[in-house]
Amino acid sequence: MPEDKVVLCAGDRNCMDIVKCLIAGSGPAGYTAAIYAARANLNPVIYSGMELGGQLTTTTTVDNFPGFPDGIDGGELVARMKRQAERFGVEVRSGVITKTDFSKRPFKLTIDSKDEVLADTVIIATGASAKYLNIPGEQKFRGGGVSACATCDGFFYKNKEVAVVGGGDTACEEAVYLSGICKKVSMIVRRDVFRASKAMQDRVASKSNIEVLWQCEPLEVVGDESGVTGIKIKDVKAGAERIVPVWGVFLAVGHHPNSEVFKPWINMDAEGYVITEPGSSKTNVPGVFAAGDVADLHYKQAITAAAAGCKAAIEVDKFLQEV
C-alpha cells in the first residue's frame, strides 16, 4: 500500500481508505489532474462516475486536440489519457459519488450509496452533460450528424447545410460560428422571438446564410445508413409539418453541470456550475477544487478542460504542502 494512503479501522467497523487526492470524473480534466497529481507523488484516485470518459466518448472524430494531425476518435483519446494516467500509478475506480460531507477534513464521500472513502483533497471534474430533445432519431444519430458542439464538429459539415436548434445566446453563437463554415444554417426556434441578447441577435441578422425558422418545433431527426439527412419540424402556428434537408443537426438547448451531489457544500451559480476563485480552481471549501466543464460556462472544450485539470492538480499540491 502506498505510504500516502492509509486505512482507518475502528473495532468491527469497515476499514476506510484515506487518499491524498480524490478526483471525481474521468474526462480530460480528471485524467490530466490525475497525471499531474501522480507525478507530484500524491497517489491520486479517480472515481469514474456514470459516464466513463465524459462527453468525449460521444464524439466520433476529434480534430482540434493538439498532437493528432489526422484526428482521433473521442473514445480512443480518452482511453489513451487513461493509459497514461495508469502508467504513473493512478488508480481508476468505477463508481459514482452519491453523497458528500465536506464539513471537515479529511472529507467523506460515499460511493454508489454504500462504500465510504476519506480524502485530504478533492478535485471535482464531473463535467457537464448536453441537454437533448428526446425526439426520435436523436440518439440514433449521435456522432453521425447530431452534435451538441459546433466548435467540435462544425468542420465536418464544411459547405453543407445544417440546422441549429435553440434560440438563446448559445444557439446564436453556434449558428454564427457555423455560418462561416457551412453553406447554410437553419435556426429552429420554438418561440417567435430570440431569448438571446440583442448583440447576439444582431450577429445572426448580419449573416446572409442563416435562416431563422420561427415558431417551429423539432419532431424527429431523420437519416439513413450514411447519417442525418434532415430534421422534421412542425410549424406551431400553422400546424404543418415538413422536413428540412440538412447534413447535421446541432443542439444548442443548454448543458447541465453534473454537480448535484456537491450542492450542500460548494458554492454554485443558478444553473449549478461550480464557482471558483477568479484565476484559480479553488472553491469556497479549502481543499476542494473544481476543473473542467463543471466549472466552465463558456468554452466546454477538451483542451480547456485538460488545462483546468493541470491547474487544479498543481493547486492541490501547493495546498497540501501548506497545511
How would you describe the overall organization of this protein?
This protein has 323 residues and is an alpha/beta fold. It folds into 2 domains: 6-129 and 255-322, FAD/NAD(P)-binding domain; 132-251, FAD/NAD(P)-binding domain (3-Layer(bba) Sandwich). It contains 6 helices and 20 strands. The protein has helices at 28-39, 74-87, 150-153, 169-179, 198-205, 302-322; strands at residues 6-8, 16-24, 45-47, 61-62, 72-73, 91-93, 97-101, 107-111, 115-124, 128-130, 146-147, 161-165, 184-188, 210-213, 216-224, 227-235, 241-245, 248-251, 255-257, 288-290. Helix 4 (169-179) links the parallel strand 12 (161-165) and strand 13. Residues 1-14 have low confidence and may be disordered.
Brief sketch in words of this structure:
The protein is an alpha/beta fold and 323 residues long.
Key words describing this protein structure:
323 residues; alpha/beta; FAD/NAD(P)-binding domain; 8-stranded mixed sheet; 22% helix; disordered N terminus
Structural topology:
Blueprint: E1 6-8, E2 16-24, H1 28-39, E3 45-47, E4 61-62, E5 72-73, H2 74-87, E6 91-93, E7 97-101, E8 107-111, E9 115-124, E10 128-130, E11 146-147, H3 150-153, E12 161-165, H4 169-179, E13 184-188, H5 198-205, E14 210-213, E15 216-224, E16 227-235, E17 241-245, E18 248-251, E19 255-257, E20 288-290, H6 302-322
Parallel strand pairs: 2-3, 2-9, 3-6, 9-20, 11-18, 12-13, 12-18, 13-14
Antiparallel strand pairs: 1-2, 4-5, 7-8, 8-9, 10-19, 15-16, 16-17
